C-alpha cells in the first residue's frame, strides 16, 4: 500500500500525497492547455477568402541596422492591400535617412517622426498609439524593427485569423537559431511562453500576446481606451492591452509556420536577464484569475521538483519509490511530448531534446527574475 490508514500523521506519506497533488496539477496543465497547441489542427484557408486591407505598424528607436535588414521584407509582402507605418521614436542614428529613402521607393510606406520631447514616459506606448491612430485600415498588425517575417505570406496568414467575430489574432514571435547554450535556452523559454498564452487562448482564456507578432482591430483599440489604463507603465503595450480586452469569443490563434516572425535573441545572459525582468514586470497587473492560473502552474512546477527530490530520500518502501519515479516519468514524458509537437508547429523541432534540462533551469531562474523586479523595477524602452 502507498498510504497507511494513519497517513495524516506519517510525514513520509504526507510528502508522497503532496507530490501526487502537484504531479496531477502539472499533468492537467500539459494535457488540458498545452496539448491544444501541440495537437492543434490548422483550418485550411480558402484562397478566395476575404483578404481585408491591413496596416502594419512598427515602432523603432535607434534601429538602423535592423530596419535596413528587415523592413524590406515587410514592405515586399505578397498581399493585395496593405500599408506599412513606421513610427520613428526620435532615433539618433541614421534611421531618418534610411526611412526617407525607403519612403520614396514604396508608395504604401508611411513614416511618422516623433520629436525628442514628446514621449514623457520612455515607453513604446505613445509611439504605438500614434501609429494606430494614423492607420488607414481597420486591421492593424504589429511587429518590431528587429523582427523578420517567415516569408512573403506573413500578412496573408495573420489576416486569415480574423472573422466577423474575431477582433484579436495572436501570432508566434520566435528567435533566430544560433549556436550556443544561451540561444537554445532563450528559444526554449520563448516556446514555453507561447505554449502558455496560445494554449490558454485556445482553451477560451486568453491573457496576453507578444508585440513581435500581434494583430487586432483599430476600433477595438479606441473603444477600449487604448493604453489609457496603464500608460504610466513602460512595458505592457502588448500583454497588458490584450489582458484587458481579450476574451474567449473575440480572440483567435494562428500557428501556421508562414505566419511566424523571428528576431535576434540576446547574446549575453545579462542582456537576457534584463529583457526577462522587463517582460515579467507587467505580470502583476494581469487580471486576478490570469495571475492565479499562471501562478499555480509555476508554483506547482517548483514544488513538483522539490517534492520529487524529498520523496527519493524519504521513501519508506520499494513500492512508494516506484510510485514516485513513475509519476516523475509520466510528467516528464508528457512535457517532452508537448514540447516536441508544439515545437514542430512553432518551428522549434529540436528543442524537445533538451526540455528536461531547460525546464529545471527555468524553474530555478524564474523566481530570481521575479524577485529582482521587487527590488529594482526601472525598465526602459531603449
Quick overview of this protein structure:
The chain has 382 residues and is an alpha/beta fold. It is 50% helix and 12% strand.
Main features:
seven-stranded mixed β-sheet, 382 residues, 10 strands, single chain, three-stranded mixed β-sheet, alpha/beta, Spore Coat Polysaccharide Biosynthesis Protein SpsA, Chain A
Secondary-structure blueprint:
Layout: H1 11-38, E1 54-60, H2 64-75, E2 82-89, H3 95-105, E3 109-114, H4 125-134, E4 139-144, E5 147-149, H5 154-159, E6 168-170, E7 173-175, H6 181-202, E8 214-217, H7 218-223, H8 239-245, E9 251-253, E10 261-263, H9 269-280, H10 288-314, H11 318-345, H12 355-375
Parallel strand pairs: 1-2, 1-4, 2-3, 6-9, 7-10
Antiparallel strand pairs: 4-8, 5-10, 6-8
Helix pairs in contact: 1-6, 1-10, 1-11, 9-12
Cα shape:
elongated
**CATH class of the domain at 54-188 and 206-272, please?**
Alpha Beta
Mean pLDDT: 90
Count of helical regions: 12
Arrangement of strands in the largest sheet: 3-2-1-4-8-6-9
Order of helices and strands: HEHEHEHEEHEEHEHHEEHHHH
- Based on DSSP secondary structure assignment, what is the total number of beta strands? 10
Q: Supply Rg.
A: 23 Å
Unreliable segments of 5+ consecutive residues: none
What does this structure look like?
- The protein has twelve helices and ten strands.
- It starts with 10 loop residues before the first helix and ends in a 7-residue tail after the last helix.
- The longest helix is centred in the N-terminal third of the chain and has 28 residues, at 11-38.
- Helices cover 50% and strands 12% of the residues.
- The chain is elongated and about 75 Å long.
- The chain has helices at residues 11-38, 64-75, 95-105, 125-134, 154-159, 181-202, 218-223, 239-245, 269-280, 288-314, 318-345, 355-375, and strands spanning 54-60, 82-89, 109-114, 139-144, 147-149, 168-170, 173-175, 214-217, 251-253, 261-263.
- The chain has a domain at 54-188 and 206-272: Spore Coat Polysaccharide Biosynthesis Protein SpsA, Chain A, CATH 3.90.550.10.
- With 382 residues, the protein is an alpha/beta fold.
- Strands 3-2-1-4-8-6-9 form a seven-stranded mixed beta sheet, with helices on both faces. It has a three-stranded mixed beta sheet with strand order 5-10-7.
